[in-house]
Design goal:
The complex is a heterodimer of chains A (116) and B (116).
Chain A lengths: L3 E2 L4 E5 L4 E7 L4 E9 L6 E7 L4 E4 L2 E6 L4 E6 L8 E9 L9 E3 L3 E6 L1
Parallel strand pairs in A: 2-11
Antiparallel strand pairs in A: 1-3, 3-8, 4-5, 4-9, 6-7, 7-8, 9-10, 9-11
Chain B lengths: L4 E3 L2 E4 L5 E6 L6 E8 L3 E9 L2 E5 L6 E5 L5 E5 L8 E8 L11 E2 L3 E5 L1
Parallel strand pairs in B: 2-11
Antiparallel strand pairs in B: 1-3, 3-8, 4-5, 4-9, 5-6, 7-8, 9-10, 9-11
The chains are: A mainly beta (116), B mainly beta (116).
Amino acid sequence: DQQVKQNSPSLSVQEGRISILNCDYTNSMFDYFLWYKKYPAEGPTFLISISSIKDKNEDGRFTVFLNKSAKHLSLHIVPSQPGDSAVYFCAASARRSSGSARQLTFGSGTQLTVLP
Amino acid sequence: KAGVTQTPRYLIKTRGQQVTLSCSPISGHRSVSWYQQTPGQGLQFLFEYFSETQRNKGNFPGRFSGRQFSNSRSEMNVSTLELGDSALYLCASSLQGTSGSYNEQFFGPGTRLTVL
């Protein structure tokens, strides 16, 4: 049972345009969400995050939107650049019982290709 | 500060063999998590170690095991390898304590395991 879903395995966008990557989750206990970016032969690197008390977080060209009622989040990249071509993973975390550490639940990833 | 390192980077084994992968976290990080990445499945959480104790465990068979040493370095072992174990195995370290707040995970480049 996938608790975090990225239904689009791939997305192609023209350079300079907006890239929108989507992610859905089912676990209402998730209260922290992250996006990671992964290039081939490298580990994922943290991109941006959002707490469930917010509905938007912005960092330069990257903005993450959270819609808790729909259990949906999205990553907007504006403007898209060829160097943004990578696999993007959505991840979610839930507070656990006292003494336990949070863990991340990842989606399956979306391959973004930005065309020059 | 040096990042997370994983050795070896590539490994080829045959069915039935066992394998040990190593991960050195960022200096000062006491939490080490392991993930399996396969095409279409994203990153599947294996387990997490903190102060030499396994704190969290994912839904993997007992053939997958790990340990953490006093210097926070961690090893993952897979016994009786199966073809389906072919994957990229990623290690991530964090400061993550037990406060319940989220601490960013930093990933290593991974070990590409191929089982023939």
